[in-house]
Amino acid sequence: MSELLQDPFVQSSVLPLLVGLILVGVLHLLRRSLAAAGIAAGFLVVFVLVIGLPALPPPSSMGKLFWASALGLLLGVGADAAGLRGRIASAVLAVWLAASLLWIALPALDSVAAGVTVLVLLGTAAWVAFARGSEKIESPTAPAASLLALALAVGGTALIGSSASIAQMALALAASAGGFLLWNWPVERHGWGLSGRVATGIALLLAAVLALFTQTQAAVLLLALPALLAGRVRRVIPQGDGLIGRAASSAAVTVVAVLPALVAIGAAYALTGGEASPY
User: Fold this and answer.
1) Membrane-crossing residues (predicted)?
2) Model-level pTM?
3) 97-123 pLDDT, tens digit each
4) How far, CA to CA in Å, does 114 sit from each of 59, 157, 161, 200?
């Protein structure tokens, strides 16, 4: 069993999927509004199992990623438990995400390119914080599909660029999001809340580490940003009648959201000259 858990494929797919499924289910039993917190919680559990618990204060960007994500999870759980919504919740998310991005990026801010990268990430963070918060009724499928797509894009790009630890953690986040999506298919059971939006923020933090601290062609991640429009896409996809119709429309939204991620991964592969990663 221990050898199986050491397998990189298991660590970045099967393990986080199972952990995510379990945590989403347990948190749902404790309080329905906390179910989405299982995504970030699953990511942190897998991080500790695969990489280990980082030191505090953290000496590395990945350590900062872990502790920033842990703080975000606590904020999300607190806000969802208190029923915090609207502009206040969006402001809390924006402050946490901007501070986390700057904390991670500060050692790498030594060039114009790095500054532009941080500005793009901050702009995307503002979209995640305030565009999501403007939706009065937030279906969980579309934002979870957006998270799945972004994490896949980061993980696939990192894998091609031979950034093994980032690839594993990004794919683990995608698998954890997949566990949440499975709980909400064919029938949507849970809300998204601030905890879910924190998980999307974690994908941005992973993108920041990839773009600022590796030689990977991270600019291709811009091609994955249309995945954030999955909520808008859902409005134009027919919802269908009955269980089968709703299940089909949810699956369609997920597929549409993932397409930009596949484009980004394909672009990253093409820029390497078609060379496979040693991982």
Assistant:
1) 12-30, 37-56, 88-106, 112-130, 142-160, 166-185, 249-271
2) 0.91
3) 999 999 999 999 888 989 999 999 999
4) 20, 18, 18, 22
Structure tokens at 106: 């500060």
Count of other CB atoms within 10 angstroms of residue 185 = 17
DSSP output for 95-128: HHHHHHHHHHHGGG--SHHHHHHHHHHHHHHHII
Rounded-to-5 percentages of helix, strand, coil across the chain: 80, 0, 20
Count of domains observed in the chain: 1
CB atoms within 10 A of CB 107: 13
| pLDDT reported for residue 6 | 67
Domain enclosing residue 204, as ranges: 2-271
Q: Which residue has the higher pLDDT, 253 or 71?
A: 71
CA atoms within 13 A on the CB side of 55: 4
Please report whether residue 21 resides in a domain.
yes
